[in-house]
UniProtKB/TrEMBL annotation:
<dbReference type="GO" id="GO:0008880">
    <property type="term" value="F:glucuronate isomerase activity"/>
</dbReference>
<dbReference type="Pfam" id="PF02614">
    <property type="entry name" value="UxaC"/>
</dbReference>
<comment type="similarity">
    <text>Belongs to the metallo-dependent hydrolases superfamily. Uronate isomerase family.</text>
</comment>
<keyword id="KW-0413">Isomerase</keyword>
<dbReference type="GO" id="GO:0042840">
    <property type="term" value="P:D-glucuronate catabolic process"/>
</dbReference>
<dbReference type="InterPro" id="IPR032466">
    <property type="entry name" value="Metal_Hydrolase"/>
</dbReference>
<dbReference type="GO" id="GO:0019698">
    <property type="term" value="P:D-galacturonate catabolic process"/>
</dbReference>
<comment type="pathway">
    <text>Carbohydrate metabolism; pentose and glucuronate interconversion.</text>
</comment>
<protein>
    <recommendedName>
        <fullName>Uronate isomerase</fullName>
        <ecNumber>5.3.1.12</ecNumber>
    </recommendedName>
</protein>
<dbReference type="InterPro" id="IPR003766">
    <property type="entry name" value="Uronate_isomerase"/>
</dbReference>
């Protein structure tokens, strides 16, 4: 795993704590990367083709970057982001790169700048500072690296020290890329690249094309989704197919954390209304909430770890969604309630240690008040790392400071990079490891934790915990 140029990046400024943090970080830095949740396209590794130009690799697919420029009036089409209707966008990588470099000052103090600068230095060995005057030189240096065999996706995977990478697919996906990875010795159960079951497009009645998606689900699974019973059977069949392709977890990106424990008859009535196009927003929310309990029940049967990512208002920027589609930077977080929302699921299954529910948030106000006490009181519940709008060094620090008091370290699930930007994976994990080293060093300096226990803990956080929680070492332990 590459290391940063500056030995003390993100480590505490106080000399005594910094010395302790250096020792702890050195233990974490050498650990393999476990990446249990992300959105890298599996075709990247299945096909192992050379990357495109620097802009197509680093700017066009990264909505952290394109949304910032949109906020300053630069439309995504000027940065090469494809349009839904196929209307023209900028395709010249050098032009895109220059345009981005001209707005580089917008990223001062942001995690995006930190990640990108360290990607330049530690992945590509390029130390030229980015700016309007240096844009072409930096572009040429990175383009030259991308032409080398050592910068093909699988070679970088090896160099990054990734032990396991989980991608995320819909039940409608044929998993063909994962089949190719398995044939090459890279995928399948216990493989280096595995899939994750993400059923939102067949669960959320407000998802565009939901009814059609449900029909396709039935076709893919060989079940009749005209009935609720057939729908559940189709979901179970696709989960089994995902497990056969190496999946160890499911992922659920609902607008809220609400759960409902409905009777089969009540759930069937909701499902039928949705299939007839008669469901309203309340029906859609109730069905999503019920299906979280249903998926927990399925997890007890098939062993998939259940990840819940609530709290995003999807496609809030309607213009952006209409022009460019989903997942291009048009989403925003909202306040999210967990105590009452999760009660039906937790009352039913929360004390069953066979179930693992990894819970994330976009609302850091809930760290102390709701999430830590919940994870500290239910056997089935674990806390995922800060993600998306919260995956910055500052929030990672606040997460440790606020949740450790009630939940400890071992009711958390390790770091997730949650990224489409393949080349930023080692950088993001390294940032988390440095933050954890600083937090543990403070506990040691305050005589709250012996150094030997801090050393064991940082290796657990970086490697052993995520490997165990997501069952990458074998069966549920």
């Amino acid at each position: 795993m590459p290391t940063f140029d500056h030995t003390d990046l993100l480590l505490p400024p106080e000399p005594g704590q910094r010395a302790l943090a250096r020792e702890l970080y050195a233990l974490a830095a050498t650990q393999p990367i476990i990446s249990p949740h992300g959105h890298v396209d599996p075709a990247l590794l299945a096909e192992d083709r050379p990357f495109g130009d620097p802009a197509q690799l680093l700017i066009v697919p990264d909505h952290y970057l394109t949304r910032m420029l949109l906020s300053q009036g630069v439309p995504p089409s000027d940065l090469g982001v494809p349009t839904r209707d196929g209307s023209p966008v900028e395709t010249d990588g050098r032009v895109i790169w220059r345009r981005f470099a001209a707005h580089w000052h917008l990223f001062r103090g942001t995690p995006s700048r930190l990640w990108l600068e360290q990607t330049f230095r530690t992945v590509f060995g390029v130390h030229t500072p980015l700016g309007p005057a240096t844009a072409d030189a930096l572009y040429d240096e990175i383009a030259a690296r991308l032409a080398e065999p050592d910068f093909r996706p699988r070679a970088l995977f090896e160099r990054f020290g990734i032990e396991v990478l989980a991608t995320t697919e819909s039940p409608l996906d044929d998993l063909g890329q994962h089949a190719k990875l398995a044939a090459d010795g890279w995928g399948g159960p216990g493989g280096r690249v595995v899939t994750t079951f993400r059923p939102d497009d067949v669960v959320d009645m407000e998802f565009e094309g939901w009814s059609t998606n449900v029909e396709r689900l039935g076709e893919r699974a060989g079940e009749d989704t005209g009935t609720y019973a057939g729908y559940l059977a189709a979901l179970r069949a696709r989960r089994a197919a995902f497990i056969a392709a190496g999946a160890t977890s499911s992922d659920h990106g609902h607008p809220t954390a609400r759960t409902l424990d409905l009777t089969p008859a009540e759930a069937e009535r909701l499902y039928d209304r949705g299939r007839r196009g008669q469901a309203d927003a309340a029906d859609a929310e109730a069905f999503r909430a019920h299906m979280l309990v249903e998926f927990a029940r399925m997890s007890l049967d098939d062993g998939l770890v259940m990840q819940l990512h609530p709290g995003a208002v999807r496609n809030h920027n309607r213009w952006l969604h209409a022009r460019h589609g989903r997942d291009v930077g048009g989403d925003v977080p909202q306040a999210t309630e967990y105590v009452h929302a999760l009660a039906p699921l937790l009352q039913r299954y929360g004390n069953d240690s066979r179930l693992r529910v990894v819970l994330y948030t976009l609302d850091e106000d809930t760290f102390t008040r709701e999430l830590a006490p919940l994870a500290g009181g239910y056997a089935a519940l674990l806390l995922g790392a800060p993600w998306w709008f919260l995956d910055s060094p500052e929030v990672l620090r606040r997460f440790r400071e606020t949740v450790t008091e009630s939940a400890g370290f071992y009711n958390t699930a390790g770091f997730v990079d949650d990224t489409r930007a393949f080349c930023s994976i080692p950088v993001r994990h390294d940032v988390a490891r440095r933050v954890d080293a600083g937090f543990l060093a403070r506990l040691v300096a305050e005589h709250r934790l012996p150094m030997d226990e801090a050393a064991e803990t940082i290796v657990d956080l970086a490697y052993r915990l995520p490997k165990r929680v997501f069952n990458f070492g074998g069966t549920n332990q």
